[in-house]
Amino acid sequence: MNQSGGPAGGDLTGARLLLRRIRTVMARNLPAQRRLDEIARTIAGAMVAEVCSIYVLRAGEVLELFATEGLKAEAVHLTRLRVGEGLVGDIASHARPLALADAQHHPQFAYRPETGEELFQSFMGVPVLRGGRVLGVLVVQNKTRRHYTEEEVETLETVAMVVAELVAGGELVGREELSPVTGIGVLPERLEAQVLAPGLALGIAVLHQPDITLTQLVAEDPLKEIERLDDAMSAMKLALDELLEQQDGTGGGEHREVLDTYRMLAEDRGWANRIIEAIETGLTAEAAVQKVQNDMRARMREIQDPYLRERLADLEDLGNRLQRHLLGQQELPHARDLPDAAIIVARNMGPAELLDYDRQRLKGVVLEEGTASSHVAIVARALDVPLLGHCAGLMDKVQAGDSLVLDGDNDQVFLRPSEDILQVFASSMRARALRQEAYVADRDLPAITLDGVAINLMINAGLLIDVPQLAATGAAGIGLFRTEVTFMVAHTFPDVARQREVYGRVLDGAGGRPVVFRTLDIGSDKVLPYWHRDAEENPAMGWRALRISLDRPAMLRQQLRAMIRAAGGRDLHVMFPMVALVDEFDDAKQILDLELQRARDKGQELPVGVRVGAMFEVPALYWQMEEIFRRADFVSVGSNDLAQFVFAADRGNAQLQGRYDPLSPAFLRLVGDIVRAGQACSKPVSLCGEMAGDALEAMALLALGLRSLSMAPPSIGPIRAMIRSLDLGRLQAHMAALGQQRGPDMRSSLRAFARDHGVALS
Ligand code: PEP
Ligand code: MG
C-alpha cells in the first residue's frame, strides 16, 4: 500500500481493476484524442493522483503534452519539452521510470508556468515504450509528499503499454512522425561500424524486428492466460529443439555450446515467473511478454557487464519467439520470404534468430549494438555471414527496403548508397570472388620469392572451425592459436578435459602441421563473460595475459596439463603472451616443466618435442633480447600490441587508427633489431600481428629478414601471391638505399617499388 493509502495503486487487484477500466475506455468508439483524455482521467482516479498527464514524442525529439487530468487544460498541445529536458525529458532520454517524493527540488525539474504544476510535490513518470523505442511519457503527480511504491511504478508501466498502442495507431500523430529522425529514407549516409564477422555484402535492408501489433492487451481471466503461456512455451521449446538439431554438423563445438546455453535460457524459471507476474496484473500473455521485454530493454541500457548484456539479448530473442507462438505465428514472418540479397538490420539479435533466416538469401547483418564476443557474432562467423555491429544510430536511420552496403574492410555501412558506390562495390566483390578462386587454385604452390627465398606461411586461429582453413589455404601450420577464444565462448571456465578435447581436435585437424598454442591472453579487450573483475583504468596495460597466469598459477597449470595430454606422442609448441621480463618467462616455463614432470611421473604419454616461445609485445623486452633468445626456443612478434605500446596509441581507438604507421622507420628498425638478435642466437623469429596479413607491410617484413609470418586465413592467398612475385634481393637493396635518406616515407616508397617491379599487392 502506498503512504496515502490509495486503493488502486499498490496491489495486483488494483492494477487489474485499472486495466479493466481502461479496456472499457478503449472499447468505446471514440476518437483517439478523447480516448487519451479518458485514459488520463481514469488513471488519475484509480491511482489517487491529482494529476495524470500523457506526453507524446513528436518529430524533432519534442515531447508534447497531449492529455492531462489535473494540470491546466490550456497547456495541452502547448507545453513542449525537449528529450532530456526536465523530469519528463529525462525519463524519455533514459527510457526509465522516475518516482520522486519531492520533485521540485530535483536538479532536472523544469518549471512550466502554463501548466500550474507548482502545486504538486510528488511525481512518478514512466516511458511509453514500444519495440524498444520511446513514444512518450506517462506521468502522475500528487500535491502532498508521497513515496510511490515499486508496485505503483509497475502498474503505471503496464498502463503505459496500452497508451503505446494508442499512440502507435497513428491517429494522434502521423505514423511518419513516429520515426524519430526527420528526412529519414531520403539521403545516402555512411555509418561507422565494427566488423564482428568479416566480409563485404550488398543488399536490401530487412528489419529484423517485425512490428508485432498486439490487439489484445488486457485479459479477464489470468488463469486462462497462464495456460496459454504454458502451451506457447512448450511449443516454442519444441520448435527450438528442432531448429538447433538442424544445426548439427555446422561449425565446431563452440558454436554448438553457444546455442546450447541459449536453449537452457528457455528453461529459466525467473523469466517465466516474471511473465506470470505480469499476467497477474491483468495483461494478456502476449502483453505480459512484451512488458517483461520492455523492462529488460530498460535494464540493458544501464548494464555494462557483457555477460549480463548477452543474456538479456538472448532473452529478448526468446521473448520475440514466445510472442510469435502466442500469436499463432510460427517463425519470423519474413524470415523465409527474403529478397534475393537481404541484409538484416537489428538493434541486437540472439544467436538462434540468425538461424531462422534463409541462408541462400541472407547476405549480411548489421546491428546497432553487438560486440565481437556476442553470441550472434560467433554464430555469424561460423556460418560465414558478414556481420557489422556497434553501428550507432542505425535503427533510427534505416527503413525496410533501403539499399545497404556492408564494408567489412573499412568498418563502415553505406545507407541508400548512390549508384556510383553500388557499382564500385559490386565490381570489387566480383573481383574479390575471382581472386579468391585464383588463390584457391594456387594454394599448393610454394611460398617462394622470385630469387628463391622460402617463406613459412601460417594461420592465426582461435576456434575449431578455423582449423579446416589450413587445408583450404595450404598454410604450413597454425602460428598462433589464441586459446582464450575457447574460454570467451564458453559459459564457465573450461576444465582440463574440455580444454584437452579442444587442443586435441586442433592437433588432429592440423594433421601433423605445427600448432603454436598461446596460453591465455585474457584481460584488456578479451573479456570472459563469467569472470567478473574490477574495472581497470588502462586494461591493455593492466592485469592481463601472462600476468594473470602467473598470479593464478592453477589456471596456467590446468591449461598446460591439457596441452600436454592433448599432444601426447606429437609435437607441442607453447607460447607465452605479453612477456615483459625474462623472469616471467622463466617462471612460466618452470610451471610447464613441472607439469611435464608430473605427466612423466604418472606414466602418461608425453609430447615428442616441446618448444617454448615468447611473444615479443612489450618494448621492455628489447633491452633483454639476448637473455630472452637464450631461454626461448622461438619468439613471435605480436606487432598489434608491440605497436600500441611503442607508439603509446590504443589499438582499439578508432580516432588513432592510421595515425602511427608500422611502416615508419622507427618501428621497422625495432623489428629489424629483433630479427637480427634472433639470427645471432640461431632462434627462429616469426610475426603474428595484423601486419603479417597486409601485403605491403608483409613485403617490408621479409626485407627485414623475417621468414615466418602468421596471419588471418583469408590473407594467405594474397600474401603467397605477393611473395611469388617478389625479388627479395632487389627489395633489400632498395630498402638499404632508403635507410640512407632522412625521414623517408617508407609506405609510399615501398608501394612505388611494388608497382615498378610488378609485385602483386592485391
Ligand atoms: C599481437 O598483439 O600482435 C597479437 C598477435 O596478439 P593479439 O592480437 O591476440 O593481442
Ligand atoms: Mg597481443
From TrEMBL:
Presence of the UniProt keyword Magnesium in the record: yes
Annotated InterPro entries: GAF, GAF-like_dom_sf, PEP-util_enz_mobile_dom, PEP-utilizing_PTS_enzyme, PEP_util_C, PEP_util_CS, Phosphohistidine_dom_sf, PTS_EI-like
Catalytic activity line of the entry: L-histidyl-[protein] + phosphoenolpyruvate = N(pros)-phospho-L-histidyl-[protein] + pyruvate
Main subcellular location of this protein, as a coarse class: cytoplasm
PANTHER family: PHOSPHOENOLPYRUVATE-PROTEIN PHOSPHOTRANSFERASE (PTHR46244)
Molecular function via GO: kinase activity; metal ion binding; phosphoenolpyruvate-protein phosphotransferase activity
Enzyme Commission number, as recorded: 2.7.3.9
This protein's GO CC annotations: cytoplasm
Keywords tagged on the record: Cytoplasm, Kinase, Magnesium, Metal-binding, Phosphotransferase system, Sugar transport, Transferase, Transport
Enzyme class: transferase
Name this polypeptide is given: phosphoenolpyruvate--protein phosphotransferase
Keyword Kinase: yes
PROSITE patterns xref list: PEP_ENZYMES_2
Family, as annotated: Belongs to the PEP-utilizing enzyme family.
GO biological process: phosphoenolpyruvate-dependent sugar phosphotransferase system
GAF domain location: 31-177
Co-factor requirement: Mg(2+)
Source species, domain of life: Bacteria
Pfam family, one: GAF
Subcellular location, record wording: Cytoplasm
